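User: My instructor asked us to take a sequence, write out its structure as tokens, and then describe one feature of it. I'm not sure where to start. Here is the sequence I was given:
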Amino acid sequence: MTTSNIRIIFQDIDGCLNPADGEAFGVTPDWEPSNNQISMLDAINTELNQSSVEHFVINTGRPWGLVQNLAKHFTSPKARYFLVEHACALYDRQNDTYLDCAQMAAANGLDALVTRYQNIGHIHVLFDWYRDQGMAQLEAHYQVPLPPVDKQANLSFRIPDGVDGEALLQQIESLASDQLAPEHIQPLLFLRSDNYIDILPGIHKLDGIHLLSAHLRIDLDHALAVGDYLNDIPAFEEFHRVFCPANAHPQIKALTRSKGADGEVAEQSYGLAVLELLKQM
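Assistant: Let's start with the prediction itself. The structure tokens for your sequence are:
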């Protein structure tokens, strides 16, 4: 894959920035990276500063509260923007503010994105249903707690140990479809990541790529998407230039290879793959 013309990287976190042994990042608000994790993050930050890349955009399903302790190790000014909650929200670290995604989409003539960002209201209906009915029904079925992650724009909860994530995903989609009006279900995307069930308001990481690239006036031919797991499928199916580490899910590897010269499956795993990628730039 040619990397010399890449100006912006859209970078996943979990499975992509971990140290060489795959040590998982924490999932609680008080989590702090370990020394092992910090060493990898600092090394990536150093290579980022030395590369020709102009923007390094974290594009993750995590909310900002589960990103900020990791983000402080990306001191490079190139790491200004953070697409969080599967691109349902865009945080500008330089100005310490969330940007209005619907307004940005309108300003850049992205009419379809305007509509999808306005669909966030449907997720609030889902929030209410899950709090009042859905969570209790799922917990009674699986006999484990399933509290939602503290997010603003998508519903996520951790897949408990020993629970089949695909079956859990099908179960909540079936319950929600049976108990909510079709107009509230139709815009939603039901996905799973490494450890989470994620329900999105018809917005996914690819939308964030289109939105921020347009805002920064960067042609999509100069953008690269980096990911590793099933929640990256919408982006890896439709975006033309993608990169994944050796530890990526087989479906992500297959989609990456399907891009030919515009897709690369790294020989290295986790953060080592990103380090090698940046060294080529």
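For the description part of your assignment, you could build on this observation: The two ends are 11 Å apart (CA to CA). Try explaining in your own words what that tells you about the chain.
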